[in-house]
Structures
1.
Amino acid sequence: MLEMHFGNMLGEVIGDKGLSLVEIEDIREKTAFAHSQIHDRKWDELAFIDLVNQDTSEIKELAAKITGNSDLFILLGIGGSAMGPRAILDALQPMHNFRNHPRIFIYENIDPRTLEAIIEVIDPHRTTINVVSKSGNTAETVASFMIFWEHMKKNLGDEAAKRFVITTNPEGGILRQIVKEQHMMSLPVHPSIVGRYSVLSPAGLLLSEIAGISSDELLLGAKDILTKCSNAELWENPAYLFSVLLYLMCVKEKRTINVMMPYADGLKSLSEWFCQLWAESLGKLGLGITPYPAVGTTDQHSQLQLWMEGPEDKVVIFVRIVDYGSNIRIPKVFEKIEEFGLLSGQCLNDLIDAAAKSTELALSNASKPNMTITIPVLDAYHVGQLFMFFEISTTFMGFLFGVNPFNQPWIEAGKNNTFGLLGKPGYQKQKEDVLRMAKENVCWRL
Ligand SMILES: O=P(O)(O)OC[C@H]1O[C@H](O)[C@H](O)[C@@H](O)[C@@H]1O
């Protein structure tokens, strides 16, 4: 089970920059309010919690079919619809494309050079394209879909529709309309689930099954931690405590940046997924916390100096793995040279462990608050736990701040400006606003 070590957030351990138990107890009213929002299911968007009980048989059937008839699986999506699936793949199938079949590629950003390169190498007869869009109307995803559709049509004619799977809202959206018209394969994402909370829905689970990662294990981990993270008592609920400590560090100590630093390459994408969740859910009404992705040990050699001696505005959250499932030992070569001799015979695990502990200690000794989340092994069960732990923490934190953790009004505004510029009827005002701003812009042309 996931563990959360929070001693280094407390005054007793790190001195006067830490929190006191009184400060934590003082916000009981707020925490009770936040708990009631979740417990009483006051928001439809909390439907992500029910994903732990979903039936995965349709996803598995589809995955088996795709695995049998495809050499390449391309996921088209952006934001939560790409970051969640990528977090699963990178965490649990490192170097997937070199070792497993079918190869998987996630096309998120609409960079034309990337697209050209993909189109050049794919064999349409052996490629399946999964279009993932919760809303079904995100311009980037729709544009990529249109380009791939035309390409596949050109090559496969009427058979093209069979090479697409659309993962979207079961009721509305323009993609759903096309699914019906073209009789395409599709999977539903519950209408109330917001994209960034959709990783454990078919949006993430189809790719997971295709990569050979058990969706049931992901869901089981999420379900087990949910039991812990549903407890009304703050001290018994790791997700609530996680949020309360970061909330207090933000409002009392002005620590408005949270560094998310897993000690595993595979969790770098999960850290980016967390950043979207934290940023889009909390950044509202002048409130919120800026998330900052990092990875250990790499960022000890790149960012740590800033954390140690820069502005006092951060809390560092480490994610540690007890057993990496590998015991690569550093061989006994060049031992006569002292520095080589020191490393000879040690496991890479030991080196990571020493680096992580010493960083934690350095921060704590310098009174820099930090927390450590530990999982015993990096497997689907524990990755499922991490997803649900952070999702519950985020909603709870949103309610502590008093903001809606499920909307993103300014992203919608940006989407509307894009529609305006592209000439969508009804969006003339947005177009004029953007063009006026462009005119007023001052720039140097050199
Ligand atoms: O899955 P979609 O509906 O296409 O949404 C993709 C992304 O769109 C917007 O940018 C939202 O702010 C994100 O939260 C969402 O993940």
Note: The mean pLDDT is 94.
2.
Amino acid sequence: MEALDSVRDYLSVLWDARPATIAAALGSTWIGWQFLKTFRSWWRLRHFPGPRFASFSYLWGYRKMTTGEMHHKLAAEQEKYGKIVRIGPNELMVYDSETLWHINSVRSEYPRGAWYGSIQFDPYGHSVLSEPDTALHDKRKAKLMSGYYGKGRTDLEEDVNTMIAELVNVIKTNYADKDKQLDFALLIRFFQVDLVTVAGSGKPWGDLKHEKDNFDFIGIADTFVPFLHAFMMIPALRDFFASQFFLKLAGPKPTDANGMGKYLGIVKQTVAERFAGDYKDKQHGDMLDEWMKNGLTQRECELELAIQVPAGSETSTTAIRSIMLYILSSARVHGKLKEEIAQGIREGRISSPITQNEARNLPYLQAVIYEGIRMVPPAITGFPKQVPPGGDTICGKFVPGGTDIFVNLWSMVRDKEVFGSDADVFRPERFIDCDEATKARLVKQVDLAFGHGRWLCPGKTLAWLELNKVFVELLRTFDFQVANPEKPWHCRGYSSFMIDDFYLRVSTDERMPQ
Ligand code: HEM
């Protein structure tokens, strides 16, 4: 009763006061409220170590992200503070595999954190990548998976074969034995955009053949992505840019002449054409066929197709480019891999093009791919899951409900306790010179680069198909040389990587058996 009287007195004083006094009173109330909120969130997680600034301000994460060195910055913090570090007022970051398996498991009660809202590429609906409701996510994903696995009407292996043949042809025609350097980073981007579009909706965008960013997707991504990664670290900005108010005012629309809106328009048209025709009679051998068969609506197909190019291009391209750089930077690895390919061809164990099964039986190739993904995991950080209301114990400490747990994949796959004291060195032999149990343990840890359990990357099948084939097809045809060993590429790390200017000189490999 007394409290109510005090509030009433306060309001009546305000009522009688002048505007300046009212503004000052409201201002100081707001500041007091913010202070209390900051103190409360600092207090909740005060027992977790981390940079002090991060414990009460999101500017810490924002500033680190803008450096383009996020992988190194986070690794340094984890080195200093241990497997669990506080990186924000309500955020912890871990590189502990047991924790990741636990919070991402199929039966886990951890939902997605609000961070996922900022990867809602279509402002008017959620794809499986951003859907915040776990039950809806699971329901949608169940309908998508047969397409992503390349089952039923989908023939992913054929798609990969077609696009790799085109990649080899472009290099042969435009670069091999010529005085012209190949920008491998850019060409692989064209390749990947075409592969994802052909696998998703049956028709490549044609970027690779013409070496051209036909629908301006790459241009948009380059301008937008660094900004996106940085603002994702500040919840207030993230919520504002993802709000219906902002999106309706300034967000992309399928009718736009360029930018993200133009991209959404292309996707919308592709799906509309398919729904207009009698798809039952005309099979296209793509994921869209399979999704429609599984009962996805026209709108759901649009949302899922729209997410494929962003989700499936920067990740796979990072893997291909970085594995290539690491192969070319080690004469031993390069020589051994070429020899494994040559011997496989001589002994009739490698067809043209190599099949998925044949590639799986090349132990050195498998080791090189795992080790390459380990050296540069395409996703660095992000993907937070939220501790359920009752709280949980992580890395031996109690974490209150509502806390966001970010993952540090870079540190996870360089964990010296798992990979040994030379974890920072590219050494594919670590997957071969060990017993089966150790190998299984290493592989399981690297697999975390694709997420885990309920949230496992559905594009993993396509990614592995590409990785299994692309190096064999390129190295059996060409000899590559890094054009500028002093600075082989321009690589920036945010939540994922952006890699440009990776120049190679190419010549035909005359010694490889045909
Ligand atoms: C080397 C290649 C790739 C890597 C390392 C990778 C990694 C990841 C990671 C870490 C996640 C997030 C997991 C989480 O939320 O906890 C993810 C999700 C996803 N990825 Fe990939 N990805 C790759 C390729 C692809 C490709 C080629 C596609 C599509 C063609 C794709 C489509 C998706 C989708 C749709 C999701 C959302 C899954 C869900 O919400 O359950 N990815 N990926």
Note: The CA atoms of residues 359 and 468 lie 6 Å apart.
3.
Amino acid sequence: MKGVNKLRGLYAITDSKLLADGRLLPYAEAALKGGARLLQYRDKVGSAATRLREADALRELCERHGATLIINDDAELAARLGVGLHLGQEDGSLATARALLGGRAVIGATCHASIELAEQARREGASYVAFGRFFNSNTKPGAPAATLELLEQARQHVALPIVAIGGVTLDNASQLIASGASLVAVVHALFAADSASEVERRARAFSSLFAAG
Ligand SMILES: Cc1ncc(COP(=O)(O)OP(=O)(O)O)c(N)n1
Ligand SMILES: Cc1nc(C(=O)O)sc1CCOP(=O)(O)O
Ligand SMILES: [Mg+2]
């Protein structure tokens, strides 16, 4: 999509429980209609066949809406579909994934609250670095904590787009953006909703927080 920075804005992350019972595609599309720039397929429970089918459908939706699909954890699936990838510290080598996916793929790395991990991720070929969790998270309550001060430091020292994740809501996202987040990654505050139209409304509200920057 010309003139739009794909690595700035709302980063929607799917959740297999919240998006069960046929909600995955309508709710994901609602997030994209509301302006999500990245969509991560995060599924820890499905079979390989289900994951391939769902990720392929999401790829098609992202293409239609000019957004980028990111696969969580699974470099092989990302390579098979020709889409992006997110890797945590225990999810395998970034450098190997970069070699597999090529120079144009968006590849992100979890860096918890560590500038050193972010620097290492940059050297190994990451496209963005993710810090978190910033607030109490319904989805991953045990994730290590990060602070707004860390975000300010990362903005000064890390030459990559920064993702803030963990307990992000419409009430606290502005602080993260003001402190240096290029993208806010959201599960619960986006997808724990009674309807697709409510997801779209929330996605628009998150996206509008970036309009001024
Ligand atoms: C954008 C983004 N940031 C962080 C994570 C967490 O990745 P990881 O630490 O590998 O944990 P799981 O998501 O795999 O449980 C993420 N997925 N996306
Ligand atoms: C997948 C994930 N990783 C985190 C980290 O801090 O690395 S927090 C998190 C869950 C984000 O979901 P919610 O928006 O519901 O808090
Ligand atoms: Mg992971």
Note: The chain has one domain: 4-208.
4.
Amino acid sequence: MISNDANKQLQRLASFYTTYVLPYVKRRSPQTFIAAAIAAFFSYQVYNFVQVPRKLRHIPAVPFWAYMKSALSEEGIDLRTRNIILPVLENSPNGMYLRPNRFGWCVGVAGPSAMKTLLLRKDFEKHRGIALQPEALFSKFLGTQNIVTLNGSVWKKHRMIANPAFHRSMPVKLFGRLCEKMMTQFEKEGDGIDSVDIPMFLQRFTLDVIGLAAFGYDFEALGDPKNAKVDTYNTIMDGLRNPIYFFFPILEKRFLWALPKRRAVHNRMEDMNQIFYSIIENKRQTLENMKGLAEDAEKDLLTLMLEANADSKEAGDRLSDSELRDDLAIFFLAGHDTTSNALSFALYHLAANPQIQEKARKEVIDILGDGDDVVYPTASQCSDMKYVYMVMKETLRLEPPAQNTTLRENKEDFELAGTFIPKGTSVSADIYVMHHNPSVWKDPEVFIPERFAPDGESESKAGSGLSWVPFGNGARQCIGMNFSLAEQKVLLSMMLRKFTWTLADNSINKDGIVLGGGTGIISPKDLHLKLTKRF
Ligand code: HEM
């Protein structure tokens, strides 16, 4: 049975075809007939895509066309949330709603209690999406055997091998060295420190960090941003951000032959794979030559993973080269854009709130001392930066770089915070939406680091579920969280010690941060800052 509404639409579609399309194509050539058949096929696909499945109609849904128009345009998730999603959430007592996704309609979770159940219980597994769409650029880049999308014992194997690498002391010296390099670069490029293109520099900084700290591989993005390695990487990243292919993977599956620009991006995957496999091979060689000579603290993540791999007693517990390659791709994707955007947003909020910037600077100077020398903070000094950490947490609340987690799927019918979720539904933890949900956070649009002080608003919510999840939570929580937090603390403290800053003259962000479009990762649009040296 289909609903009256859906039935009417179906009848209208059928009558349009019999009245207009069929008589027309009967008078035309076979090519016209084929074109009409393709059009009919697509109309049917669109029809199926637009309709909310009957089994999900008890959950409030966003209006399809308004949502898609926003998602496919340059509009940021802030406008989509405010204008389209939050009005729907007003009719949802537990913060759950429906929105379109590349696999059809999915349940978005934006309430603390449902979030806790979704992320902590084992009833929801990662969606098999990536394995279902091997032709997509996304799947070609990440591979189908990576730590983020796998489930069960195979995921455990990946996590066991990667865990030791992420649970040792963080390479803060390397973060400091690259931050110093970035700060000297400000003066050499563009308009100097009067108008610094912050996201562009931070992208280069975090790419060099992830390359060197994770794999001992130097992209040289800070020194030479136009080199071939950076170009290959950036071409693929730009391709991954295109929302058209995100929502319509069928274009890559069936029509890549007719899309020369997209095909050219796909072809660059060969260069990217060459980079990945040469990283693994070189690392193996170096390990062989250095046997036992390197100190643990000096080792990068890949070295530690290769060692853990070699130490695994059972062959079945080890990762193959192609599994290692897929994890490498994830570390790049998950560890580069996310941290660079988190830092851009933190610098923006400090520019927009000079008193908070001053308070954070005072804390840093109390810990690191003051002067025109360059100081790299140690790990223990980083842990003393309580207020800077509150600034970072509030930034991650307002602009969590990952808008949502990867999709989950329930293997059996399930009741999530009182809402029935039929077996096989796609479910997403909608981090951004929950962090801006006024029934979860008071004055959610206002930047207030004190929310994260002891006894602050955040602590008072502990009993009601999970209301702050920029890194996810539970067994699948971000493995790189501490790595990223240390990287952020080093950069923010070094910037605070060396400069004061405001928004650049004529900034488009004077009335609030403007977000870029696209799906997945949240980024700022055209963020330039005016820096002033303190000495
Ligand atoms: C501000 C920075 C970062 C943010 C906001 C972030 C966010 C997230 C989120 C939300 C998840 C959970 C995904 C899910 O449940 O589906 C996740 C998982 C993951 N992240 Fe991050 N991440 C960041 C930095 C990093 C870094 C630096 C790395 C590695 C170098 C990394 C590697 C991973 C990996 C491997 C997973 C999958 C873990 C698993 O499933 O076992 N992330 N991240």
Note: The two ends are 74 Å apart (CA to CA).
